[in-house]
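Section 3.1: Structural characterization of target chains.
Under the original work plan, the team committed to producing a structural model for every single-chain target entering the pipeline before any wet-lab resources were allocated. The record below documents one such target. The sequence was received from the expression subgroup and is listed exactly as submitted; it comprises 158 residues.
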Amino acid sequence: MITLPLTFKRGRLEYHQIKRDGDKAIYQVINPHYEVFKIKEMKEHTWPNGNTTPDHEISPSDCEWGINGFSFTSLEEAEEKFNNMVAGIIEDKSVKVNGPIVIPTEEFSIGDFADKNNIDYSNAFVIVKKALENGSIKFIREERRNARGKMTKIYASV
């Protein structure tokens, strides 16, 4: 696996790694500002012309910004976001909640998630959907929790 370098350029921007924990990182972008993002792993790929790109890491694309990547003008704000990402805390300003959202450490349904965070089901649904998109949680299975009705989807933290 080729890891994302401590310093790299993308377009006109130059990035310098400040801190990393697993697949979360803070990079200072020479402007100056700071970017916090979830690092993605790309598997080895053989192109039609026969060239092979080895396993490597990448930063989020422009269209993923605001989901898997965030920009800050102060290191303090960047570190707060980084610590929340490492802890699995989801912040969603489009959903009304009281306090930070916490992803359960055990397997859970959307209803379990809503109960644990003391929010209504519709808000829990939106947050779980966004967490699936950004890779904070993953779908595990469906199970029948009562004799009638739809199957319940079960999720877990990654």
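The longest helix spans residues 121-134.
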